[in-house]
Amino acid sequence: MSLPVLSDRPAMRFAQSDAPLPLYITEGGLPAALTEAQVAWAKAQGFTGALGQICVLPDAEGGLSAALFGWGSAASRARGRFHLARAATALPEGVWSLQGDLSSAASEEAALGWLLAGYAYERYAKAAAPKARLHCPAGLDAARLEAIAAGEALTRDLINTPANDMGPEELERAIKDLADQHGAELKSIIGEKLVEKGFPLIYAVGQASPRAPRLVEMRWGSEGPELTLVGKGVCFDTGGLNLKPGSSMGLMKKDMGGAATVLGLAHMIMALKLPLRLRVLVPTVENAVSGNAFRPQDVYTSRKGLTVEINNTDAEGRLVLADALAYADEENPDLVLCMATLTGAARVALGPDVPPFYTDDEDLAAALAEGAAQVADPLWRMPFWCPYEDKIEPGIADLDNAPAGGMAGSITAALFLRRFVTETEGFVHFDIYGWQPSAAPARPKGGVGQGARAILAALPAMLGLPA
Predict the structure, then answer these.
(1) Is the pLDDT of residue 345 over 90?
(2) Chain-wide mean pLDDT for the chain?
(3) More confident residue, 466 or 233
(4) Sign of dihedral through CA atoms 344, 345, 351, 353?
(5) 252-267: b or e for each residue (b if 16 or more CB lie within 10 Å)?
(6) According to CATH, where is 3.40.220.10 located in the chain?
(7) What's the pLDDT at 60?
(8) What was the pLDDT predicted at 17?
């Protein structure tokens, strides 16, 4: 059964209509365009313009004529995102057109949120799609927003698929489907050939599983700056011999969320035909338990030549990324972006909504911060704190994959990864969660992309591309 990625989802596309119904966005007073009867109806329904409040207006025959959506105050809107997505799931069937004094950025967020509200994961059970459709607001690029929504749908589909149907081979197949769609080139290194080709850490993590580990590489584009995306593809993480408790293992189908997110971003880039050379590297494994599993205090020599002592087999993500980042670094691309569901420490520090990112480049950091704010895709910069470097140096080897003490876990993981990117000046690491713990507007409970839209918005500044 092939993975249903990038399927045609009408609810995630803009509708075409010559006469869409007006959906008035209002903060307080009622729109001047309403008739006296509509004003009376809205008041009788108790419509005040509070955030998320919806009032459907009838015509003289009792059919639909328009609707009101409360935009609330700036303070209330600051407590969330994609507020208009509530209308997508609450309004009756029809094609609707936004009417109101929204800024371009607010209009784009509203329109994208509406599209994202049409997402449902339907591999194993059907879900009712919203019947209300949106006419693309004037001045917005419909094709761009639909490409972003499709990339996000791909990310969510991949994360939501359980590990019995999403192992390394299945993830490779999904990447091949994506490559075929966009005319990209694909190659893979599988099983023991990883050792022969110089990827010992990837093989070490995945060797205990009957599902062979692999490194999947996709290339697209022939001109422009080179962008390399590296995504952690641990399809399930038992913790290895440092076995996770059941409460920590329950969500480990999402441990390939970094790979899923870079693939969603890659779709956006290729669908929009950005003028760059794209390289995607996905080290994909299953961290399992068997007699040949890698062990605590084993020492491996990485592709970079750095030796690594294994002090916790549950800190496996940084190991597979280390070999992939060293491989990326060998080409000295213009920019390397690494995405991974890497540490619980990041969640403790910033919660599920706000992923930290790490970079030494002030211009890259500023571009990402601006892009995150522009498209409502929050990120927060954390430091490569050099005084903690000694925490990842165990003495018996060059590096320790799991420093003792438990403090600054996201920072020390980022410092570990930075050791494998020495030739490339532009490097950013994202420690994402990739999961929506409870439903929110435009984000049902389950897999979710984080950072991809912010990166997309920041790429022109980061790589000198046309805006």
Answers:
(1) yes
(2) 96
(3) 233
(4) negative
(5) bbbbbbbbbbbbbbbb
(6) 10-140
(7) 85
(8) 84
Confidence tier at 7 by pLDDT (50, 70, 90):
low
Sheet strand arrangement including 54-58:
54-58, 64-70, 21-26, 94-99, 132-134
Residue 423 above 80 pLDDT? yes
Which fold would CATH assign to domain 10-140? Leucine Aminopeptidase, subunit E; domain 1 (3.40.220)
For residue 3, is pLDDT > 90?
Answer: no
- In which residue ranges of the chain is CATH 3.40.630.10 found? 146-463
So which residues are the catalytic ones? 244, 318
pLDDT of residue 207 exceeding 50: yes
Rounded Cα distance, 290 and 240, in Å: 8
What is the mean pLDDT of the segment spanning 280-292?
98
pLDDT tens-place string over residues 370-422: 999 999 999 999 999 999 999 999 989 999 999 988 899 999 999 999 999 99
Under 8 Å between Cβ of 360 and 384: yes
Name the pLDDT band for 62 (thresholds 50, 70, 90).
Answer: confident
The three-state DSSP-derived secondary structure of the chain is CCCCCCCCCHHHCCCCCCCCEEEEEECCCCCCCCCHHHHHHHHHCCCCCCCCCEEEEECCCCCEEEEEEECCCHHHHCCCCCCCHHHHHHCCCEEEEEECCCCHHHHHHHHHHHHHCCCCCCCCCCCCCCCEEECCCCCCCHHHHHHHHHHHHHHHHHHHCCCCCCCHHHHHHHHHHHHHHHCCEEEEEECCHHHHCCCHHHHHHHCCCCCCCEEEEEEECCCCCEEEEEECEEEEECCCCCCCCHHHHCCHHHHHHHHHHHHHHHHHHHHCCCCCEEEEEEEEEEECCCCCCCCCCCEEECCCCCEEECCCCCCCHHHHHHHHHHHHHCCCCCEEEEEECCCHHHHHHHCCCCCEEECCCHHHHHHHHHHHHHCCCCCEECCCCHHHHHHHCCCCCCEECCCCCCCCHHHHHHHHHHCCCCCCCCEEEEECCCEECCCECCECCEECCCCHHHHHHHHHHHHCCCC
Please say whether the beta carbons of 453 and 377 come within 8 A: yes
> Which CATH architecture group holds 146-463?
3-Layer(aba) Sandwich (3.40)
